[in-house]
Amino acid sequence: MFAGSVVSYPDRGHWGKSSYRGNCTGRIIKDFLESYMKRKDGLVVDPSIGGGTSVDVAREMGLRFVGTDLHQGFNLLTDDLASYIGEMAHVCWWHPPYAGMLKYSGVEWGEPNKWDMSRMNLQDFTEALELAVMNIHDAVERGGVYGILMGNMRAKGTYYNLSSLVERIAPGRLIDEVIKVQHNVKSDSSSYKGNFVRIAHEKLLVFAKRESSLFLIGSMEKRAAAMTGITWKAAVRRVLQGNKILHLKDINDALEPYAKSRDNQHWQAKVRQVLQDERFFVRLKPGVYQLAA
Predict the structure, then answer these.
(1) Average pLDDT for residues 202-229, to the nearest whole number?
(2) Higher-confidence residue: 30 or 18?
(3) In this predicted model, what pLDDT tens digit does every residue of 226-242 receive, in sequence order?
């Protein structure tokens, strides 16, 4: 259980596959679950198990657990997490890729996969992150909790505050922020030119579930004003997740709570424009759409 808002685990422990790059220590997952798992019969979910650390921690703690990953066939960007698990989660743990810091598909497993967030440019990663967090939020029971462990990165002299991005886009209510000190990372043995502060921490951001993400997306939009050019697309994608095939009218009906929060009298035209992006949407017949595979 967390004793304070800064944690340090020099020894990663025996959980999971230690050779799977980017795997976090199971100690922080254990502390997270001990701190926020309030129901003995509650379900713990991890949609990105990676090297299996959360699987081992939950088994050792005797918790009900559902874990999956893109390398197991579950796609957090196209599939509906709540439908996949078959019930609402009490607690959800998520340790996503840190943009392109480490590559996973084609390196740690299988062939390169276009839905792998570690292989996306920063704009596509930002939208994917937004969509994934909405999916996770909606799979958690009201009053439940989800935690997202995110690190920041520096690339070509630019600092990317990915943990701040998570805080801005998540539709839940932020209830805790835990700073995790990093140990035994590759950069510790690397030499760099120039003077800059070496990144030596990650953030665990803990959110409580309130309403459906599409009802909250308007206030989320205001908090993320600098990053909202993609939010309409993420909202439309969220409506279609889970292999749904919907008519434009049904899509608009689902988006109406979100649209009411926007200062846009022509939002239906915006939805039609978004649906023209063939990377993410397929028109099966006039006015009928599904997500691209």
Answers:
(1) 66
(2) 30
(3) 334 457 899 999 999 99
Q: In sequence order, what E strands does the chain have?
A: 6-8, 43-46, 64-67, 89-94, 140-151, 153-155, 158-160, 173-181, 201-208, 246-247, 281-285, 288-291
Beta bridge partners of 149: 204
In the block, tokens 């001990």 appear at 34
| Amino acid 18: pLDDT | 83
Residue whose C-alpha is closest to residue 89's, from 55, 127, 41, 35: 41
Segment among 118-132, 183-197, 260-274 with least mean pLDDT: 183-197
- Residue 83 near residue 95, CB atoms below 8 Å: no
42-85 pLDDT, tens per residue? 999 999 999 999 999 999 999 999 999 999 999 999 999 999 99
Q: Are 159 and 122 in contact (CB under 8 A)?
A: no
Neighbouring C-beta atoms of residue 273, cutoff 10 Å: 13
- Helix/strand/coil (H, E, C) string of the chain? CCCCCEEECCCCCCCCCCCCCCCCCHHHHHHHHHHHCCCCCCEEEECCCCCCHHHHHHHHHCCEEEECCHHHCCCCCCCCHHHHHCCCEEEEEECCCCCCCCCCECCCECCCCCCCHHHCCHHHHHHHHHHHHHHHHHHEEEEEEEEEEEECEEECCEEECHHHHHHHHCCCEEEEEEEEECCCCHHHHCCCCCCCCCCCEEEEEEEECCCCHHHHHHHHHHHCHHHCCCHHHHHHHHHHCCCCCEEHHHHHHHHHHHHCCCCCCCHHHHHHHHCCCCCCEEEEECCEEEECC
